Fold these 4 entries.
Entry 1:
Amino acid sequence: MRRAYLDNNATTPLLPEVIEAMLPYFGERFGNASSIHHHGQETRAAVERARELVAKLLGCRASEIVFTSGGTEADNLAVFGVTRVGDHIITSTIEHHAVLNACRHLEENGCEVTYVPVDGHGVVDPADVKRELRRNTKLISIMFANNETGVVQPVAEIGKIAAEADVYFHTDAVQAAGKIPVQVDEIKCDLLAISGHKLHAPQGVGALFVRKGTELEPVQYGGRHERSRRAGTENVAGIVGLGKAAELAIAGLECGDDQRMSALRDRLETELLKIECSGVNGSVSKNSRPIQAWMAGDGGGGAPPRLDGAKPRLHTYPPRVPNTTSIYFDGIEGEALVIALDLKGLSVSTGAACSSGAIEPSHVLLAMGLPPERARASIRFSLSKQNTAEDVEFAVGLVAETVGRLRQLSPVYRSTVPLEQTRAEPPV
Ligand code: PLP
């Protein structure tokens, strides 16, 4: 059976070069990177080479990179590492659970947390962040790009607010790194998390950028690995894979991988929007806008000036990472569509959280103001640079046919969904 994989925000396949780079570290190069003999020195050198490459991807010093077991651990280390009882944290309603649940835990243990809302495009307003600053605010944690909609947040503007207020700024860049340029000095962040398996490295490895001078307490105790910031013998093969993936991502961004990916994503989106009663959640931007300018608070050009003199950000579509689109098909149960598509060879996801057997609509889409039934009718398509035009054609045909079939079977579709196109501008 032909299969196409369009769920790359869940995980990406390893690139052949990454596998090749890792292979010796499952065999003859097995040393513990903390050992002082030949075998240890060999793996230590490999870990340090990888650290240089990850640092290059993020535009920081190698000594500012802490290897972790993935994005969740990197986010947790950032959030728990700089906060203490009595501190106040500002985060957003659309964060990944790696940040949200860490914040909830802190709330239950003597910290205060403010969850700033997003607009209908799924964007945090930096003015809201600024307004929520308090005397005891210690940390702002706002993600770089959302995992469900791909929408990029104005992180450079938020970084400036944090720096002016002398508050730590963490950004979860798990869905941005490798897809768009991510440079820590542009964002002025103190902490930034990435995950290997979202950029063609293996699962179970990630990294946290920790700006020099940041007072970070470890969350696990043991040996003095990673300059006493993260105890535990390093996952050498995984780290080597992450280093190689970072090197390939830098080269890919230089040679336009992102533009090819966004052209495929845009084609997929344009075709899927021909299905009646469908629409995009978040933003339909085609990546034409300079992402750097957007992140720094420049409306990006072309937007009408606002009467109050504020920057015209909210009048235009925010940029997205080039691989993601979240689309609703009204009258459809997202999980049913995912299963039906899987049976025909297409892997996509809903982005919904499945807990204790109940399918809950995505907290991200609800936070953007979608009604629960539309959030449940949404599917996330996420590409990688390995996807082809044939994958897109295959997906378009299959989704159109399957949505049509499921709607025919639905006793409620005709009565609940108006026949005319209901695609509406998202509320701003
Ligand atoms: N943050 C974001 C935005 C993510 O999308 C994910 C994974 O989906 C994570 C954090 C967690 O990363 P990991 O799977 O490496 O723990």
Entry 2:
Amino acid sequence: MRILSGLQPSGRLHIGNYFGMMQAALHLQEEGEAYYFIADYHSLTSIHDGKLLRSHVRDLAIDFLACGLDPAKSVFFRQSDVPEHCELSWILSTVTPMGLLERCHSYKDKVANGIKPSHGLFAYPVLMAADILIYDADVVPVGKDQKQHVEVTRDIAIKMNETFGEGLLKLPLPRIREDTAVVPGLDGQKMSKSYDNTIQLFEEPAALKKKIMGIKTDSTPVESPKAVEGSSILALYKLVASPADYDQMVQDHLNGGVGYGDFKKRLLQATSDFFAPFREKRAAITADPAYVDRVLAEGAEKARAVARKTLARVRDAVGLG
Ligand code: ADP
Ligand code: TRP
């Protein structure tokens, strides 16, 4: 089984990214041949500052490794080190119906949020299709909001196969973790960089405390039972606490007698504990910059060998070269 996924280097990772996508991707590296990459071409649709993009790429590489990406098990690389993605993207774009892209929620949402609709932003799903199809991926672990992009990838692959020959490209399947499909942010909406409601993976302790203690709650008095449905505290606690501690917190909500301040303290402790080993690993990796360079260079070489083969097959089928 070949597994593939990418993350955009567009700011610090948050726990929505971790539980929505990274944790599943990290488990899957034990089950098959995994290809994970830093989608820097994609980030060019929102970042036009070379220095900033480079520093985000570096941070993402360090963070992913700190969270458990194992370069001995996964091929880990930077997308722009494999320019074959772009050539395949162009070829795919020539069979991609405009209507397919016009229906993409992500594009519509980004434009609604004030991002200027460039051609790159519109064509974003075609590049994503190329990322996936160039590795003949079987499974694509992503958060729920990326599901449509994997479906578009399948549609484009079907179109290519109908046009240029059955079996030319492999149809991938999305893998969505339903239990963490949408991790809520500090304000109860979906956690997202764009909503400024995130808890970062490597939040400084003081900032983490401020954020968790500041989670919005209602004014139910300490002694009264509290709503379990729609509670961000409980939803977040479920991700980082043991099942027994989580059940206890649910009971304390139902019984009353415990205040939100207490629940927040428990959430703070469980969050710090959960990410403590990653923090340690991150400090070690940060101290060895050459290690990160080496991992990305080796990953690029392995990825490129596979990408070149697929691209040669496609070029041949469509009549290029
Ligand atoms: P953001 O919304 O903060 O810009 P991205 O769009 O860069 O995050 O998402 C990167 C990955 O993390 C995607 O696979 C996405 O589905 C997943 N993801 C992001 N936010 C969440 C969330 N709140 N809950 C679950 N998964 C998420
Ligand atoms: N669009 C994805 C996101 O924003 C990142 C991405 C780019 C990706 N190419 C991909 C994810 C290929 C999976 C497969 O999160």
Entry 3:
Amino acid sequence: MATPTFRPSDLRCEYLTDPINIGVARPRLSWIDEASIRSWRQSAYQIVASKTAEGGPDLWDSGRVESADTSQIEYAGKPLGSRDECFWKVRVWDEKGTASAWSPTHHWEMGLTAEPAWHGSEWIGIEGPAGEHPAPFLRKQFDVTGHVRRARIYVAGVGYAEIHANGQPVAPGTEREPGYTNFDKRVLSVSYDVTSLIKAGRNALGAVLGTGWYDVHDKATWNFDRAHWRGRPRMRLVLAIELTDGPTQYITSDTSWKAGTGPILRDGIYTGETYDARKELTGWDRPGYNDSAWSTANKLDAPRGELTPRACAGVVISETIKAKSIANPMPDVYIVDFGQNFSGHARLHLNAPAGTKVTMRYSEHVGKDGMIERSQIEQFMATADPPQPFQTDTYICKGIGEEVWEQRFSYSGFRYMEVTGLPTKPSLSTFEGRFAHTAFETAGEFSCSSELFNRIQHATRYAFLSNAQNIPTDCPQREKNGWTGDAQLAAEAGLVNYRSAPFYTKWLDDLADTQSDTGLMTLIVPTGGWGSGARHPAWDSAYPILAYDLYLYGKDKTVLAKHYEKLSRYVDSLAGELKDGVLTFDSLGDWLPWSTQTPSTYTSTVYLFVDAQIMSKTAKLLGKDADAKRFGDLADQVKAGVEKHFYANGTYANGSQTALSMALYYDLVPTDRRPSVFAALVKNVTDQGHIDTGILGAKYLLRVLSQEGRSDLAYQIVARKEQPGWGWWMEQGATTLWEDWKGESSLNHIMFGDVSNWFIQWIAGIGLDLENPGFSHIDIHPQPVGDLTWAKASHQSPHGLILSSWRKASDGFHLDVTIPANTTATVIIPVGGAVTEGGSPLDKVAGVVLVETGAGKTILRIGSGSYSFWSKAG
Ligand code: RAM
């Protein structure tokens, strides 16, 4: 038998592996402990950090810290400034006092965190009034005087800046860099490692600028064309070249750069891109290019926002999707079907004469006549005068043989694409779909014996990714807006399925930036002004709910501390609207219900209760006891208000599924009344035979049914193939989640997406224990309901991988569970019969404590490790 070993692995800084753009002074470090024995726990750790990979701990030696923590550990060494490197490693001790070997060394680098590090670089671009113009191309030639040891480009660009060095894009596979914020408040900068691209001798840098959200000339309902920040695109850049044999050389953006225009005739975030390949500037990003016809780059004003290193991934092309079929409903009109709804664009492969103009119009839907049908998604732009295109890319050929092209500064939401202007019949390989969204590592998987559930899971993941575009959005086609309600409803599904904490952490800053001095939030974030000035608690609560979700799923207290003041301001100001313990104004509520509309006064009041509770718990966590009491009292006051104004005749509000499940989920129902209220909910669902909620209720209904022991009913709701429900969408051919039960609007919305969270946390049974955030203690409670014969899920928690996999077989019920080091789990095996592992009764199994057996279930407590439980049939 091998000797038990343990070691720390997967070292991360601010959730990322070896990041080079850290902006905070005390970045948080994490690792996971891998241990080959059950019930392993860390008793202590030591972190050392140094300026060089080989050096001693000249930056930090934490010493031995008695703690089982492996995440959210703040760097507490010597202060780090812009561009500083930090190499670090960790070792851990077990409970017997034995030390592990040191982990491999990892590293992080600081981005530019202070103005002097920008080395006097200027914001440059092409001056003139904002609006539709050819995209600026910028270039700079320079000499490097020695051998390059490390080279980094730091760049801020609004709307977008695509950087090239010596003929190549420096971040291939990315697009729409650095990203979207309220540019009056905060502007993102990114770092690129260009060590292998910069050489001794003559070099060239290039940049192409896109309008993005900075210069929105597209006219649409949300008035981004009137945003205060609006201006011509611009960028600011520093290339720092460290030489092995000389002082660091800096190349900075300034008026020594040249500026020209080329093939991108126009680009618009909603409208798309027009590209004339005949105007390409071959070699423009290489040394030696003749730029004598170019003018001098103009120095432009800095955007008002504070420059901040972006601490999360940007947008990448994650997948290339093959065209599935091409129809030809009218002469010269081709309809390409990619078989999957997604966000991004198409890549063209063409061989056509110069001047051939190919137009691609992206759509989610094809009408009866076989032509694309976009009335469901273009209505907010249709009134533009003069008319403007809508998610349309146009390519004009240069006629040199095989041409390959894809746009870079916009994106669309689509499954189908109409192509016109082709001189010859296309083949399937003429087009590829390019799926573009914020990059995430996956954190969760789910599959089961139901093909339908697997399709819903697939659709949820594609909808989540399609709606992650620097910010969480509502839909990738019609609006592309950071609707706050949609985000709060989908965040838990997002956090269990993907490592999305850095993405939400960034968007919380966007929320903070958008808050008014009086504590008002806005409906969309960022906004150029639209959707501000009114209260919509179910949407506005995204701010406290998301901050607290990061704590619940990732033990992040830093984000709670950072936003505490503004969170309090929001909740206090909303509390100022209370009348006798309830909110009485109308606002957005249980949006897009099937048939029953729950009063928004009720849902808003419940959200204020949720907010007050979050603030009370947060205050307690942060040691602010007086505030904890104050917010606790507020929660009590609202609870009493709900009781007085919304409870009557055994029911809450109008007795809708939403009203009842919210009351039960948030514990607004006195204990002795819970059974009757739950019975009323069950009756409602059984009588109707389907879900009857909008987006709010859909997050709570399945959870409450499962919590109260009726996963069988929740299963029926989700497995139903008739309208309304997720199953009906799938029957209609959905490949992403839809905006409404009727299928009359966008076909790629994420706001009904909590169903995936229910699959993972309930069907497969990896339950988050709200009292033990970060899955420190896990509730494993698989739900073998309905026709399901097996289900499995995994989740990468802060402690490591959690796995739950069950199957019903002729010989009984099998449950495989893995829980990571430093955690414990309560396992509920939901069948009768004695449970064994590897042939041994449970009282003989290492790592297991039998808590209860009988009455159709066995309850265990387990320590870390992998287990295979079996409950024999009969
Ligand atoms: C729609 C959006 C979003 C929703 C709002 C209320 O326009 O798409 O999903 O939050 O309305």
Entry 4:
Amino acid sequence: MRVPCFLALALIIMPVSNIFGQYRENNLPLVPRPRALKLLTGTFTISPVTQLVVNTDVAASDAGYFSEYLKKHYGLALSITRSKHPKKNAVNVFTSEDKKYRGKDAYSLSVENDKVILEGNVNGGTFSGLQTLVQLLPPARLNALNIPCLFISDSARFSWRGMHLDVSRHFFNKEEIKKYLDDMALFKYNTFHWHLTDDQGWRIEIKKYPLLTQTGAWRNGTLIGHYSEANELYDTIRYGGFYTRDDVREIVSYAAKRHITIVPEIEMPGHALAALAAYPWLACSGDSFQVARSWGVFKDVFCPSERTFGFIDDVLKEVSEMFPGQYIHIGGDECPKDRWKSSPLCREIMATNHLKNEEELQGYFTERVEKILHKYGKRLIGWDEILEGGLSPDATVMSWRGNVGGMAAARLGHDVVMTPTNFCYFDYYQSNDENEPLAIGGYLPLEKVYQFDPVPVELNESESKHILGGQANIWTEYIPDFRQVEYMAFPRMCALSEVLWSDPSGKDYDAFITRLTGQMKWFDFLGINYSKALYDIQSFSYPGDRNEGLSVELSTTCPGATVHYTLDGSDPVFNSPVYSSRINFTQSTGITAEVVTGSKPSGRIFKKLFRINNATGREVTLAHPPNEEYCRGGGFSLVNGVTGSLPWKGSEWLGFLKDDLDITIDLGAERPFTKIGVDALKDESNRIYFPVGIMVYTSPDGKNFSEISELDSSSVQKFDRLITVPVGNQRSRWVRIVAKNRGICKNENGQEDPVWLFVDEVSVE
Ligand code: TNX
């Protein structure tokens, strides 16, 4: 069979109309971006008479997936026939051993007027090509499916293109897991890291230990709200679920059909409370345990006893039988050593095996488990903590605490999968908007995911070879249902797919966004729930014209987006003014704005009130800078007309650790005022305390200040958020406000901790 050569097909490119407007090389909604793409004239049409032609069993299986896809989404049933030669009016899917397909998942896709020829290797090549083809179909249920004529030659950058899902904190049923695998396949992911056990639930049936799922899969309630909140509230709903061995087999073969390997994770020695609840003898203490209802890290962990290793051997034997992939993930993260330290048995094991400390005891634990895995023909992978106690060279390390663990592992010759929190934790917020659903914390917008590179620049060429790829993790403490899993995954998963698949030399965020916005039509068509944070509008305040009032800039992270706005509180419509330059005003003003693409609103409505007082937009100086964790916007954010939103994480609050707020405002000219306002936060469970006193000073020259008013601690504590200090009739150009930080507080262990003072706005009225 002959695939037409690239150059021979380099004909004059005529734009052809399609559902996306006009086909152009740079607007075909392909994510991840293929290595080479040439758009040609004409279209090929898939209709009920189109055949699927295949040459091998793998091609037949891949084409089978494609045909099911067409049936499900377009109601088209195409017949599959075998042939060694391409046919006309057909989509020809041919696996090939040609050396040009040696690359990872390598394929070529040639769409001609009268046929499609897809060739690729058996290890995901043709399957990946079919995903490309799927993305070229119209995202609408039409009878005739037009595809632009083109030639694509493509292969993957990394062999490990992973998505993880935590099914312990919240459980997702078999059908939902299948949907997750479908979502992954569409973006050429090939590894599903299935986090099956944790403190809050054991989710895989093990024949020899029925209590793991009878007891360990169920908890008697779940924490309400965020873990960091002061009052721990729980619901009393029995929560749980698990996958039977048959479910697992069904899911494994469903994944295999999509060329996705499943890496099951059985957490040990930490994050094991659910197992201990089922079989308390797995712990060192002799206590009994409950499946956890809350989040975090628990001190009760597996005891490294012979009986525990016997259990682990049995469990891993069954797990190895259920999962054909080479890897089993054994966790290894966040294992507190408290119980081991107080256990005579652990001391004995340490003495017998000449282990210096409990970290080495975990190293011993990992080594024992690895021997078990090798017995069952499997390889060990674990979180980067497994490095701390020494590790055999065959073990693979998953680097989550930044790149550091991964780099150390690669330098020691271990294979590494990069999944650093700051680029790959899809349980973090993707937007600062206050209407985002509750998340664990952090901030990981789409653009940051796109910037990720799994290969740290510090590694040399031979060390870099150990980086197998990367993965995003979806921990589900705050993700109660599958719709929200998708919301957290999309579209960040698209950005990561491009990082893991495409050649980094062609990285271009704006171009990615153009292709992604085409993809969003797909999300709607396929019923994928996704975040529109891309279209969120952010505002930045500047001093107003002639130093009066404010000048407000609106922006989005979406290149080329059109923002419409109103100043009368009404929702923007298509003919509302288009934002083009900063909006100036001298009276308190509300701005309502929205991104509109075509004639349709695309994102969330932005609504913000900018309050103007004598201090707004003025020059300020801070005697102590805010802590670098909470310093966004600097001192000016205290006079930018905007009060901080709640939750406060990631928003514009300034945080002072142990320091006072000490701000001097130059009002520009002498001005009359009667009161001072300090907008502060009270959140004692996060060690954020109200100030213990406020002092106000004025100055005739900006240098010498005299106190004009003071509010003592008990008066301050009477307020809830906005603290008002009456000052009588004053006139001054310079005003200094000092809000005293409480300094320290005692924690539950009686030790002293530094206290935060959080302020978002001050006013002079
Ligand atoms: C840390 S990442 C964990 C998980 C949590 C996650 C929340 C890792 C190896 N352990 O147990 O769910 O943070 O972001």
